[in-house]
Amino acid sequence: MSRPLPLPVEPAAASTWPAPFLLYLGNAHDDLAGKTARGLAFWRPELCVGQFRDRDCKTTLGITDLDFAQARAAGANTMVVGVANAGGRMDERTIEHVVAALDAGMNVASGLHQRLDSQPRIVEAARRNGRSLFDARNPPPTPVGNGLPRAGRRLLTVGTDCSTGKMYTTLALEKEMRARGMAADFRATGQTGIFIAGHGIPIDAVVADFISGGIEWLSPARDDDGWDLIEGQGSLFHPSYAGVSIGLLHGAQPDALVLCHEPGRAHMRGLPHYAVPSLQATLEANLAAAHLTNAEARFVGIALNTARMSEQDAERACRSAEDQLGLPAQDPVRHGVSRIVDHVIACFPN
């Protein structure tokens, strides 16, 4: 008996995930494990009808808890699998929940590395319910990077480590620039950013030889004096993910860089045997890499993630960073990014 063809799964570069959303947290063990759902709830709250948490979930988004039938009755069209884990795979419980959401009448979108259509039970549930599956980590074909100069201005966020706030910083910069009447566009490179923007390229799912070309494709030449604001990934100092970070630097050809950091972090994420690098070392390493494709690249600000700090300590950390590097330092969530944008404008007048 011939096997049925798999359902088509939309590429991240052209997807629209029908809103509103139910945000799936499953059994996320901490806030970071639910970062995709958290990002959507923060940046697109008007599109989120509620969250689903299983019995062992250790985090919350502070929105309404709903089961699948309740979410559908409340108008949810798509359940977004909003969790992230090492390896990006679905466990048995998650597969059961995805099938239940499809049976309740919702589409399902996922940012995990393991594709939804790799699971026969999920494919069958989508087929029998006439629902669609969307995978954010389904990159479009991209060229090999060529490093040729291209018109327009680009800003890239980089970090001392993973999960230091690069996406939040990039989105905050877009919001501030647009509020000032500037042409500015967020270019998503990770699953959370793709769900927020509705398009982008999952750069960590691109074959290594095509990473820089993928960013050239994502951020082509522009002639409107506007800015492409490119979401950074990983860190040049992280042994696991530095390859993606350097590919981003070369493909972005950034004119401007913003350094993202979480003060007080004990070690590199997931690597207790690796210390977090200094701000100065991070700045120097990223400039050296960026200068390969843009000799004029420069830093314009520092974005600190001070979520675990008091207001007084956060202010002190910002002042310390400014003293060290001579650049404006702000927490994008706590303080906004107005001073960083002021510095961008001063460095790159029209």
Automatic annotation (TrEMBL):
Q: Entry's NCBIfam families?
A: DgcN
Question: What organism is listed for this UniProt entry?
Answer: Luteimonas aestuarii
Q: Domain of life, per the record?
A: Bacteria
- D-glutamate N-acetyltransferase-like N-terminal domain: which residues? 67-139
Protein name, per record: DUF1611 domain-containing protein
In this record, what's one Pfam family?
DUF1611
InterPro entries cross-referenced by the UniProt entry: DgcN-like, DgcN-like_C, DgcN-like_N, P-loop_NTPase
All copies of the D-glutamate N-acetyltransferase-like C-terminal domain together span 146-341
